[in-house]
# Entry
Amino acid sequence: MPEKETRMRRVTDADDPSVRAVSDAEAKNFSEPMSENAIKNSLLTEHFGLYVYEIEGRVVSYAATDGVFPEMQINSVASIEKRKGYAKAMLTEILSEAKKNGIETVSLEVRESNKAAIALYEALGFRKVGKRKNLYEKPTEDGYVMITELQK
# Structure
């Protein structure tokens, strides 16, 4: 059986059809999702990054990043198909590329109750460095701040 074609790519065009897939996934995965227009507007800014992981041309996972060199922040990560390793594969590529480009520190915030995401981030080398009270709404919840150092 032939292997399915997979690729991770950075979206740079607001008219890219993957923007709609990301917007739809945001609405399904987050209580305060980025709208399609917000994603398109963000793509026009210098520091925003939108990465999609595709199988056979279909978006299965994505990540939105922001930051000012030499730091990067991961703003959202979600998989359209859960528990298949797509987010880990995508984040591994993003972190590798960031390291090659001289990014030193990557940070993110995650809901305290999101045990699966915390385990994923820890497996990728992130560690908890703080906790923000009532960081999230709908429902109100604390969030952990996690970082990883890429340049050691």
In short: DSSP finds four helices and seven strands in the chain. The helical segments are 18-29, 36-43, 86-100, 115-123. The mean pLDDT is 92. The beta strands are 6-11, 49-55, 58-66, 71-79, 105-111, 127-136, 141-149.
